[in-house]
Amino acid sequence: MTEFERITVSPAVLGSFLSFLPCLGGPWDDAFHREFCSKCTAENCDDCQHEAERNNPAWWLELIHTGTGPVRTESRNPYRKQAADLRLEAMHQRDRFGRDMLAKELESAAASIEDLEEKLEAQTDGKPGL
Asked: Dihedral of the CA atoms 116, 109, 66, 69 (nearest 10)?
């Protein structure tokens, strides 16, 4: 058994491995902030209702990937790349600088690009598009 096989036996084992890496943050932290902190009205984070998910890569590994969100894409499609970059920038504006209104505008722009890209793709498949 290789080290890769050992740490990828299950999401829980991989999550445990990731949680011991000495890093300041990871994609699981960004997802936690988007999912819980952005909707939270508490003044103090010490009594967080979602402590089980906080700093927990295993929680993040169990999330269903929807194809959207602040992820880099390997797609050669320039529209998909642009939408992914906008979503990533929205995440940074919200999580690092607290600029929620700007983040919402960036996410809206990304969604518009994705909608247009889907219409263009439908048009090339012989279906009515743009």
From this structure: 150
